[in-house]
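TASK: fixed-backbone design
INPUT:
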């Protein structure tokens, strides 16, 4: 610890009172300490806690004070600071200490223990370090974008030391860690990248501050399930059409070129979420045939053909895509055979 001697003319006027008038007795004197005054090492506290600043002195001291930069806080037992958070703890022949309650960031900085001896003034300095828990002060709002767009998410945090900011995609598919930066940039976002993104600010002073942003990705419908169905005359027959889309798709049903609607005798159309059903309560011969399910949202539409067939009919039972592909293959094979025979 180094000390800086001050000319007598620069020593605070408040310290002209003898030390015997400022210190209570009853504490053994440590003499022969050539390093006095000796303040603590740097003091580190969290925001809102109390900081104690101690200075070791001996019986050679005649006047003593604590200063914050050039501002006198205490001179002996006399309080110069108007801040009621600053109080004196001890003023003895061996120690002169003060306490600062409810410390804030503006309290950070150098504090000086200044003493006067018969020879000349001396000082010892301690630096108060104020730690601040991490706090996210600005974060992007929930956002909705179309698939293929570029997205930038922002998460600004404050703390002492400066916190580390990490973005993570909270996905059931285990996307996990994404980026260690205040800004998360996603180019050409896909539907799999929708969901919640978690921003975490960490500086080891306190528990991390965590906030979330929901990213919704719009995309056009695609039909994931549309199977041909068999039913006997007089029985119930149900055709199902399942489509994934954001926003949720609206469904329409057609038989050939005729749109079907609720209210037709013995028929009910029910759509909920991603599933639409066409129910025949009492199947008749005229109900057999090809039906088309159309799924639509603001980004586009798609359709699939579904067959309601009776007993004895041969169908693969697969979805529309596989049925159409199989039909095309059979037609191509038949056409090739006819050309060869010709």
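OUTPUT:
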């Amino acid at each position: 610890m180094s000390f800086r001697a001050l000319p007598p003319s620069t020593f605070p006027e408040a310290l002209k009172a003898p030390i015997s008038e400022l210190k209570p007795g009853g504490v053994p004197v440590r003499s022969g300490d050539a390093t006095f005054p000796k303040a603590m090492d740097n003091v580190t506290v969290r925001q809102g806690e109390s900081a104690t600043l101690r200075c070791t002195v001996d019986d050679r001291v005649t006047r003593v004070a604590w200063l914050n930069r050039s501002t006198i806080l205490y001179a002996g037992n006399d309080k110069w600071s108007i801040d009621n958070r600053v109080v004196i703890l001890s003023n003895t022949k061996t120690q002169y200490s003060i306490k600062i309650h409810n410390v804030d960031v503006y309290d950070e900085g150098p504090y000086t223990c200044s003493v006067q001896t018969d020879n000349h003034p001396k000082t010892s300095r301690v630096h108060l370090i104020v730690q601040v828990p991490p706090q996210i002060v600005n974060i992007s709002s929930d956002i909705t974008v179309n698939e293929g767009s570029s997205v930038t998410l922002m998460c600004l945090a404050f703390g002492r030391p400066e916190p580390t900011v990490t973005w993570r995609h909270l996905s059931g598919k285990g996307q996990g860690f994404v980026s260690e930066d205040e800004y998360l940039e996603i180019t050409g976002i896909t539907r799999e990248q929708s969901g919640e993104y978690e921003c975490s600010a960490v500086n080891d002073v306190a528990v991390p501050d965590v906030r979330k942003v929901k990213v919704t990705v719009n995309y056009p419908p695609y039909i994931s399930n549309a199977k041909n169905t068999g039913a006997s005359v007089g029985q119930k027959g149900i055709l199902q059409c399942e489509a994934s889309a954001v926003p949720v798709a609206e469904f329409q049903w057609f038989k050939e070129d005729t749109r079907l609607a609720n209210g037709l005798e013995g028929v009910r159309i029910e759509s909920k979420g991603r599933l639409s059903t066409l129910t025949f309560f009492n199947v008749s011969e005229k109900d057999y045939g090809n039906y088309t399910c159309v799924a639509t949202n603001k980004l586009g539409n798609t359709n699939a053909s579904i067959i309601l067939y009776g007993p004895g009919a041969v169908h693969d039972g697969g979805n529309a895509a596989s049925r159409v592909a199989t039909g095309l293959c059979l037609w191509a094979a038949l056409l090739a055979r006819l050309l060869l025979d010709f």
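COMMENT: Confidence is low (pLDDT under 50) at residues 1-34, 321-340.
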